[in-house]
Amino acid sequence: MLDDKILPNGPFAIVTDLEPSPEAPVPTNNSSALPVDPNSPGFELKYTLSGHRKAVSVLKYSPDGKLLASGAADKLIKLWDTYTGHLLSTLEGHNEGINDLAWSVDSVYVASASDDKSIRIWSAESGTTVRELQGHTNFVFCVNYNPHSNLLASGGFDETVRIWDVARGRTMRVLPAHSDPVTAVMFNYDGSLLASAAMDGLVRVWDSESGQCIRTLVDDDAPVCSHVKFSPNSQFVLISTQDSTLRLWSVEQSRCVKTYTGHANRTYCIPASFGRGRAKWVVSGSEDHKVYIWDLQTRQVVQVLEGHRDVVLAVAVHPKANMIASAGMEKDLAIKIWVNAPPVDSAADVVGEAPVS
């Protein structure tokens, strides 16, 4: 494990690394041959996917990087080939719109959270429902697989977080987590911690085994928390809030160490993520129809991706390649795939790291 530290320099604190020790590099054939400066992203549009009839609410790459799952208000889930853009299957079964998706660590199953108050577990290969989880009493807004067990976490408008035994199809634990709807749940890399975010402005960090809350992270102004994501080394969480700000918090120190601004987010729950490659980036959609990329250290916007015609509600970062997927709402409905060419000598940085999703 790398020695990960935060140097105490106020708002310019240096986060020396967010990653666990990288795995052995894996060759890839899916990036441009032209090298770019690793500190200056040069994402370009590769292709545009269409098929959903209502707002695309979520995009998730499978951990092996081969598939992209999209969910929308049209009640449908679509599975796409990551590298060709071909539509492979459409999953039908929910009675209301899709709010979130989560892949099992082996990329075999995808879980979906819906306004119909249910969670479905789908076989990616057959496109059929293999399990339906019932228990939430209101919209299910978020879902996430534990990467090291058969457990699933979900959150909803009933203000609870539920932990599920997927194999048995039953609730193992109900956490009275928040006083407002739960907008995001996220396990850390080894599955030992679970973070939940909510409209009450709180992010809580839970011990996955005991169900005890071990940290509560809250800003002085307590803006609505739209999304939370662990860094791969589990030492930080990236929190999206509806005051047009992203905040990077140290979990151990329970303090915000960096903020990222420039995008627009005051209405919708828009997720943010960590980028890939030698240079560390932060990526988010925006209500001004754009995708923003920040330098993790300097907090400066280093690239803005334009082309959508409505709010960019969903953004996903590929777990291995230098690729971003983004999707827009009703006036757009497009899923756009953006690719950044990695320098030849940094292939290990781009394709050899542990997955973050």
Give a topology summary.
Elements: E1 6-7, E2 14-15, E3 44-49, E4 56-61, E5 67-72, E6 77-81, E7 87-91, E8 98-103, E9 109-114, E10 118-123, E11 129-134, E12 140-145, E13 151-156, E14 161-165, E15 170-175, E16 182-187, E17 193-198, E18 202-207, E19 213-218, E20 225-230, E21 236-241, E22 245-250, E23 255-261, E24 272-274, E25 281-285, E26 291-295, E27 301-305, E28 312-317, E29 323-328, E30 335-339, H1 347-351
Antiparallel strand pairs: 1-2, 3-30, 4-5, 5-6, 6-7, 8-9, 9-10, 10-11, 12-13, 13-14, 14-15, 16-17, 17-18, 18-19, 20-21, 21-22, 22-23, 24-25, 25-26, 26-27, 28-29, 29-30
Task: Explain this structure.
This protein is mostly beta strands and 357 residues long. The chain has a single domain (42-351), classed as YVTN repeat-like/Quinoprotein amine dehydrogenase (Methylamine Dehydrogenase, Chain H), CATH 2.130.10. 1% of the residues lie in helices and 46% in strands. It is built from one helix and 30 strands. The protein has one helix at residues 347-351, and strands spanning 6-7, 14-15, 44-49, 56-61, 67-72, 77-81, 87-91, 98-103, 109-114, 118-123, 129-134, 140-145, 151-156, 161-165, 170-175, 182-187, 193-198, 202-207, 213-218, 225-230, 236-241, 245-250, 255-261, 272-274, 281-285, 291-295, 301-305, 312-317, 323-328, 335-339. It starts with 5 loop residues before the first strand and ends in a 6-residue tail after the last helix. Residues 1-14, 20-37 and 343-357 have low confidence and may be disordered.
